Known about the structure:
By secondary structure, this protein is mainly beta. It folds into five domains: 12-84, no CATH class; 95-182, no CATH class; 227-345, Elongation Factor Tu (Ef-tu), domain 3 (Beta Barrel); 405-481, no CATH class; 495-597, no CATH class. Helices cover 11% and strands 39% of the residues. It contains six helices and 38 strands. The termini are far apart.
Amino acid sequence: MAGTEFDNTLHWGLFLTGTTLSSETGKYVRVSELVLSALRAAGVFSNMVDGVAAPATDKLWLDKNFDPAVLKEWDATGASWVPMTYDRLFGRAAVDKLTVTGGTGNAVVVSQPAGFQANRLYLMTPSAGNSGAVTITVTGVGVYGVKYGNGADIAASEFAAARQTVLFFTGVRFEVVFPLSGLSAAVLAAQASADAAAASASSASTSASNASTSATNASNSAIAAATSVAALPFNFSTTTTDADPGAGIFRLNNAAPGSATAAYIDNVDSDGLTATVVLDTWDDSTNPVRGALTIRSKTNATIRHTYNITGSVVDGTGYRKLTLAYVGGSGTLANGAAHWLIFSRAGDAGEVTLAGTQTLTNKTLSSPTITGTLNAQGSIVATNTSGAVGAAPTLELYRDAVVTGNIGIIRFPGKNAAGTKIIYGDIVTTIMNNVAGSESSILDFRTYWGGAYAVKFTIGSGFWMNGAAGGDPGTGKINATELQQNGVPVATAITTAQGVAKAWVNFNGTGMVAIRDSFNVTSITDNGTGDYTLNLGVTMGNSNYAAVGSARSDAGAGAYNVGCVQTITQNTTTCQIRTRAVNNTALDCDITNVAIFGD
Length: 599
């Protein structure tokens, strides 16, 4: 036969159901059905179902409503069963082309490709960039949204004129396979370099000079791409007015690049793409210097100027305004010349979140803020190498709030024998008065002793021990329940020290004896005229002590008689004395003083 080996409408195949050919075992079937059945038996078309009723949509259907039967598959796009073709059977892994025939950047119209079906890749070259969500109308089929893989609408500038994009058709929508957001700005700049190189190759056929210039352009672009975090294409304007410079144009506020302190950049770059999404990130750093902006010529690598961005990006309605501080550069920015705007972001200042365990070996942290608890294994060492007077390492515990009460604690915890964490000591600062001009505070020293945790002493205006009545004694004073010297109460030490009176008394011996003041003399027994026994409170170490005294008697008219004090009997608990006139007669004196020294 001329065209095919079999004509499915004319030829039949013999199908033997047994081992002996008869009218019962021999069946004639269409050649196509015989071949398909054989393929199904071999496992190739294991999902094929034959019959007059359509099967589930995930099956192949050998539709026997026709003679010869027709092999079909479910087309989700048209919601119908369609004949299986070569393209449908073998072209699933191929990338088909969507030809743009009209529409806008946000509403693209394409012609229906041959074998348009779900679960297939398509290549499309937009004729315009998009500014927001996009739909694609497939002529004669339907309208489908364009999404990212997560179902979100695509961002502005995802599509650009003459920039190819690969789409996956799910049957209900198109999904962008390689989102622009997944490509770094450096890749975009490199693509621009490739575009420039391609343009130079095209022009090389007519002008070697133009090819050389384009090659330089591509080289400079590649340099920009390799060294940039964000590179945007713009043309320079020598106008210095603070106003919208126009699409694809940027300007400075001074004709001399080194004197410029502001830049005015249009919201649309020279490729016709919206640049605000990128421009608005140039002030995201929390550092005073948000980053470095380098203006680099596309055609001359020696023309470049770098600035620090020192303020927020300002929306000037249709353009963005940047605050600049010149760093350095070279070359003249020519009016209308093409440039790259290359931005490198500065790191954030202040808090840095270090999740989990971080190893910082030989790292310098300038004024870090630590929120929560700092757990350090080993020692924390603060060093200050300055030789200036007053310079020293400082540990500052700052409670940044207007409060009274505890504002800082240095804590010394440890484990007891049972393994329980115990606070063995604290140094606590407490604000007592926060009124401006009369601020006051105390410093408590607390310890754990005998199973009890309590304040042991406090420093305020003065110094006082826990348990001392009266609290703060005032500036320069100490308040305690007992003061000791070498383990002996000072009061006791004084009474036992040599050279210190162990007892003394001043009394009136006339009439009923009256003690004016005394130490360790508890009472006086009147034995008669000029005869007294001093009763001691603290027993003397022995009776070999020295008792010295003086006395006088009132003679009237402002005159006094001198009295002599004599010791008569010395015991460890008593001392008997007598007072006599100069003629040795007994005399009661109105002032009698006695002091006792010894052990």
